[in-house]
Amino acid sequence: MSPSPQNERGAENGDKGAALRSRLVGAAEQLIQERPLVSITARDIARAADVSGGVLYNYFASKNDLLAAALARRHSLLAARIDEILPPPGAATIEENLTAFCRGVLKMHREMLPLATELHTDPDLFRKFIGAIHREPFGPRQVRRPIVSYLREEQQLGRIDPDADAGAVATLLLGSTFMLAMHSQMGAGKPGAGQSLPAIVRTLIRGLAPQTGQT
Amino acid sequence: MSPSPQNERGAENGDKGAALRSRLVGAAEQLIQERPLVSITARDIARAADVSGGVLYNYFASKNDLLAAALARRHSLLAARIDEILPPPGAATIEENLTAFCRGVLKMHREMLPLATELHTDPDLFRKFIGAIHREPFGPRQVRRPIVSYLREEQQLGRIDPDADAGAVATLLLGSTFMLAMHSQMGAGKPGAGQSLPAIVRTLIRGLAPQTGQT
Amino acid sequence: MSPSPQNERGAENGDKGAALRSRLVGAAEQLIQERPLVSITARDIARAADVSGGVLYNYFASKNDLLAAALARRHSLLAARIDEILPPPGAATIEENLTAFCRGVLKMHREMLPLATELHTDPDLFRKFIGAIHREPFGPRQVRRPIVSYLREEQQLGRIDPDADAGAVATLLLGSTFMLAMHSQMGAGKPGAGQSLPAIVRTLIRGLAPQTGQT
Amino acid sequence: MSPSPQNERGAENGDKGAALRSRLVGAAEQLIQERPLVSITARDIARAADVSGGVLYNYFASKNDLLAAALARRHSLLAARIDEILPPPGAATIEENLTAFCRGVLKMHREMLPLATELHTDPDLFRKFIGAIHREPFGPRQVRRPIVSYLREEQQLGRIDPDADAGAVATLLLGSTFMLAMHSQMGAGKPGAGQSLPAIVRTLIRGLAPQTGQT
DNA sequence: AATGAATGAGTCTTCATTCAT
DNA sequence: TATGAATGAAGACTCATTCAT
Fold it and tell me: Vertex B143, ends B140 and B145: CA angle to 5°?
């Protein structure tokens, strides 16, 4: 009947209810950042939100629904960073821009990684997360679209080959950055995954074709 | 010195013992492919191996040790495919070769993905997996090294810019392929992630630099 | 400050909660009297308290914590009897008093015996018991102190040699009684350990020194 | 059919068999000294005896039967010490003799204590131990009898009141010593239970009766 | 609407004992 | 007779979920 909560049993008093709901999500989000998802119990969340054990079920159909909401929120927050990271088209050099950008993405990915992997452990949770993400303001392409836009603008400025496939470039950059994030996650205290970034960007810019008729 | 079990208890039998041990690993491997790791109980594995509940503990110190062994085995099997996938240097064109290669890697990554992510759920399991993998024939760089070698050979043949950073190229290829795998995993029934591969490879080969003074 | 549960989880209910907690302890206490400690499972206790399997862990951190509480309660109850047993100083004869007293202690020891011995099986349980006992009204010297006091008073009344070491007397009496309790425990259906008590008391009173210059 | 092993399934080859049987008992005995009885598994014993897991059941009907045999052997060994401890009647003074004796018993009791308590945890084991002990050379009174004999001899020598009840004295001495052993066991690092021994002995010798007409 | 005690199914793991070789 | 792998019955403990107040 009420507008906001749709397929969850929601707080019918539109205000205090929504606040509590949000507090639960916030508490869950916090916990997710701090420890392995699997170690988080329904009671932990309630305690972190400073409410009693059962409330959860007044706002969410199950623990996983709450978790999915929290993961979606966290995902959105992280994904939103992409805008702060992107350099303004036209300024500096392409290489500098992309390197700086990748550095930012690397950090973002490092935080997204646990989120992404933990999601895969529980199909039910995953499904609910996907559902939640699609109801979020922007959805999953939040990360991909801005970088594609940037590349297109640079192409129009003539600083990037207009025949290059911007989507492919985005995949190459985001993918390699994600992989670096994974490696840095695995090799605990290793030197630093960021060091390979400049070489990656430079390689992508120059391409693999042998430079014909040059030194 | 002996190839038999070393620091796990049990199976002095050298034959029937090793066989059962292997059967357990096989059963676990099978289950891992079929369902979420977290849903697999110790008893499930025993049942799948058609033995009684406790046997597991005659061959492994814990359920996680068995799981780690199974994951390691599965990882090795998957990683070994890389050799079949790699085209012979010098033949066909670089673009064809890399596209075909990436197509193979994509398939491999699709199968590795659950494995990789599920590993991240349980730190203990992860540690044990790393331990197990290091005792395996080749270890973790099984995937990366062959492609780097291939690229170097092509550089020597003059078909790839000798100044290109082979390691960076590998990261770009493997990373973007991995990302495609993730996306295809998420968008369950979607068309096919493989379709973007040719564009990706072509883009990487050509680079981003505007083609100066050319048609 | 509050009398309610302190460092165990659960039972904020202050009333119904404490009641169940107490019921659990009571049930455990009962079982402890009836059968070997080791044979008592967590579920047995729950069943005896007529609650479901998991409740135990809402009130105690572990089965052993509950057991320790029950043992402590039982110990306190038994030890408290000592006061009812002790005769009033000055009345009757020393011999009668001590004999009657020892008879009471013998019974007490018989009931304490299993408790004492079973405690020694499990270091963890033992530690927890000691912890619990120290939080009890009187603590472990509940048994020893009253008898020492009694002896001192009789010394002041001149009915016991003022040079006798009251502590030593207590040890002699309690020790020999304890040993009788052990023997009676071992020789299941034997005649009765109580029969040697009068001789023991008389012997202690008279001492071993040959009676010089007397009939 | 064969003479020696009676109600256990015994080794029928009268020599190697008996040796192995004895080795098992020895191994168990050793383990009993080293760690809590409950922590000792059937396999532990087999391993300690350097034989395979199943042999045990060729010589004993159950793990507990083996354990009972080991406990009985250990008990006998400890109890046999009493003879070395007892001073020769007539020498030194009664007080010195009894104090020295009690000191020895205290040590013996300290070693017997775990044995005694652990026995009480398992009725089945206890029963079997009692059975085993009765088949041993001397049986359970091994400890009590020598001290009673000593006391009687001193009585005949006139150094102890001939009217004193030697049995009662034995109970008083052994009981209080046993209690000291228990206390020293409980109060882990405490000063030393042996210090109260002289007072105890002196008190027993002098008795409680007020010294009439004396200093 | 909030509470939080109660529920009970489900997990891993241990270990005495058996039995085919 | 010795072996030691296999068995399977328990046991302690966790935790999402329900529901009377």
Answer: 95
Q: Quick check: B86 and B147 in contact, CB under 8 A?
A: yes
Closest CA to A71 of A124, A128, A121: A128
**Residue ranges of chain D with pLDDT lower than 50?**
1-11, 214-215
Please report, rounded to whole angstroms, the spatial distance between the CA atom of protein residue D24 and the C1' atom of nucleotide F5. Answer: 21
- Identity of residue B86: L
Q: Which residues, 6 or more positions from D150, have their beta carbon under 8 angstroms from its beta carbon? A: D86, D87, D89, D101
Question: Using CB atoms within 10 A of its CB, is residue A213 exposed (0-12), middle (13-18) or buried (19+)?
Answer: exposed
Sign of the alpha-carbon torsion through B29, B33, B37, B41: negative
- Spatial distance between the Cα atoms of B199 and A113, rounded to a whole number of angstroms: 26
- A86 in reach of chain B (CB within 8 A): no
Q: What is the pLDDT of residues C102-147, one digit of tens each?
A: 999 999 999 888 888 888 888 899 889 988 887 766 565 778 888 9
Quickly give C41 CA vs E18 C1' distance in Å: 26
Residue D113, SS3? Answer: helix
* Token pair in block for residue C189: 């259906």
Going from the N-terminus, what domains does chain C have, and what CATH number goes with each?
A: 1-60 (1.10.10.60), 62-205 (1.10.357)
Give the model's confidence band at C186: pLDDT under 50 very low, under 70 low, under 90 confident, else very high: confident
Looking at every residue in chain C, the average pLDDT score rounds to 85
Q: Are B110 and B181 in contact (CB under 8 A)?
A: yes
Q: Which bases in strand E are touched by protein, i.e. have an atom under 7 Å from a CB?
A: 1-20
Task: Identify which of D162, D163, D209 has the shortest CB distance to residue C161.
Answer: D209
DSSP B11-54: -TTTTHHHHHHHHHHHHHHHHHHHS-GGG--HHHHHHHTTS-TT
Cβ contact C185:D186 at 8 Å: no
User: What integer pLDDT is reported at residue D190 of this predicted model?
Assistant: 58
Q: Which residue has the tokens 């048609």?
A: B215
Min mean pLDDT across A159-168, A186-195, B52-61, D166-175 is at A186-195
- Residue B69 pLDDT grade (very low, low, confident, very high; cuts 50, 70, 90): very high
Q: What is the pLDDT of residues D153-184, one digit of tens each?
A: 999 999 999 999 999 999 999 999 999 998 88
CB A87 within 8 A of CB A100: yes
